[in-house]
Structures are given as C-alpha cells and as structure tokens.
Automatic annotation (TrEMBL):
It comes from the Eukaryota. Coiled coil: none annotated. Residues 1-19 form the signal peptide. InterPro entries: PBP/GOBP, PBP_GOBP_sf. The keyword Cell membrane does not apply. Keywords: Disulfide bond, Secreted, Signal. This is Uncharacterized protein. Its main location: secreted. Pfam families: PBP_GOBP (PF01395). GO terms for molecular function: odorant binding. GO terms for cellular component: extracellular space. The keyword Magnesium does not apply. Belongs to the PBP/GOBP family.
Length: 287
C-alpha cells in the first residue's frame, strides 16, 4: 500500500493543480505537456520546446518576441545579487538585436536562457498560477450568469447584480475570496504586471482592510476592492468589462454604434456614480 501511495503522490505533484477554474502548473509539468505536443515535430522549425513552454505557461507571444515580465514567477534571484534584473534586460536586448522575430523558436530558447543565466535559479517543480485567456474569461462569465440565475444580460441599472457577477468572476478565477480578500500576486500575473512591488501590495492591502472594516455586503466589497484598492497596474475591472462585451447594458448604451465598443462603454460608465473612480486613461482613446 505504501509504494502505491508514493507513486500516486509523485504523480499528483507532476500534474497541474486546479482550484475553482484556475490552473496552476510547474515548469516540469508544462515541459511534459510540450513533449507530448511536439512528439511529431513542428514543421521543420527546429527545437521549439522552450517556445511551447512559454505558450502553455503564457509568458511568451511570438508577436512580442520576448518573455513577459510574469516569467519571473518561475525564478528565484539570489538576494545578494543586485544586478540580476539589469543583466537580464541587457541579455534580452542583445537577443532581440541578433535573432529575427520570425525565428520564434530560437529567440524563445535564447531569451529564456537569459533568465536562467542572469536572473536567478529556476524553480522547476513549484506550481504557479497560469493566466486566463479571453475565451476562458468569457466562459467563466457565462458560468457565473448560470450560477447566479441571471437569465437575461445584466443591465447597468441593476448595480447589485453587476457587482455580484463581478464577484463570482473573481472567485471562479481564484483571484479573490470573501475570507482572504484579493490575491494580488495572481491578479498581477493575470494582468501581466510585476508583482514584486512591496509598496504597492502594502497600500492595496491597507485599503482592503479599511473596506473590510466597513461591513459592506459581499458583492459591494469585492467590487470596491478591485475598483478602489487594486486598481493600478493590476486592472481587473476593465478586463471584466471587455469580456462582458456581449452583455446588453440596456438603455445606457442604446444607439451607440460607432467607435471601439470598449471605449464607448467605459466613456459612458465614467458618467455614472458607480464608476466615477475609473482612471481617466481608461476612457481616453489613444491618438
């Protein structure tokens, strides 16, 4: 019985972990996936294992051509090394200058080598949060509509229903809980930001504690946490508004058919008391 338990435990550690709809994977488990995907090669593009790792763990896009900042969640810098970040950035710059963007597999290999050689020790077995895609966001919203019994699209006049849908969205993506509040680290990874800023995290949590002391209802609290406290580099409310683009905001949005849909919605929401705290840059189109 004991050997079987050991085998089962080892197998579980090698697999991804799920909580609600969130997925957590290690470099080890991602690489095992990629061995399966790439078993028959990649149409003559050479060794694309590392590129596959980046795509599955969502720190790589061919259109960007360098790892997202969130790759750092898989690495542990030496506390006494003060120059690891600058060396890594210099290495990435050299790679971008030498290897063309079209050679995505080689550029991914060399870029990740910059992190392994310059940034810190890779943690191959620690599981990390994997960000959701836009399609997955939409699926979560639809699940939450069903869970909450919202048979029609939530209108902007139904403020409580909107906030409860948003709370469900955060909980289902394992970014928030009523008991623990926001998981700022995961929120930042979801939004592509660097979550090592202790000052930002401290200010955000002080804001959360102040709101929790006000004894707000659960839906209001979840909304206020995201809108008032975790609203800088980590901006989940705009993501939510974007993926709920098919929701009919009823009379508030009838007759508006020109321009980018998200900017229209944000511009109109900015005029309503509920959304007056949205940052101005969210409602200003880029020139």
């Amino acid at each position: 019985m004991q050997p079987l338990l050991t085998i089962l435990t080892g197998s579980l550690l090698a697999l991804s972990v799920e909580a609600h709809n969130a997925i957590f994977k290690s470099i080890h488990s991602v690489d095992r996936e990629c061995v399966l995907y790439l078993r028959d090669g990649t149409c003559g593009k050479g060794d694309c294992t590392v590129r596959c790792r980046g795509l599955v763990a969502r720190f790589w896009k061919d259109t960007v051509g360098r790892p997202a900042a969130t790759i750092n969640r898989f690495y542990r810098p030496d506390p006494e090394d003060c120059g690891y970040y600058e060396r890594t950035e210099q290495c990435l710059g050299e790679i971008s200058a030498v290897i063309p963007a079209e050679d995505a597999c080689r550029r991914a290999n060399c870029s990740v080598s910059c992190y392994e050689d310059q940034y810190g020790r890779v943690d191959r077995y620690g599981v990390r949060f994997i960000p959701f895609t836009e399609l997955q966001h939409k699926r979560v919203v639809r699940e939450c509509e069903a869970i909450l019994g919202l048979t029609t699209s939530v209108g902007i006049e139904h403020c409580r229903e909107f906030k409860c849908l948003f709370r469900c969205f955060l909980i289902r993506e394992d970014l928030y809980s009523d008991a623990g509040g926001p998981d700022i680290e995961r929120m930042s990874v979801q939004c592509g930001g660097r979550y090592g800023d202790e000052a930002f995290r401290r200010r955000a949590m002080e804001c959360v504690w102040n709101l929790q002391a006000q004894q707000l209802d659960r839906c209001e609290l979840a909304y206020r946490v995201a809108n008032d406290c975790v609203n800088g580099e980590v901006a989940l409310l705009p993501i939510f508004l974007n993926v709920t683009g098919n929701l009919q905001f009823n009379s508030a949005f009838r007759g508006f058919t020109r321009g980018p849909p998200l900017l229209q919605r944000l511009s109109l929401l900015q005029r309503l008391p509920l959304f007056q705290n949205l940052p101005l840059w969210l409602t200003t189109p880029a020139v």
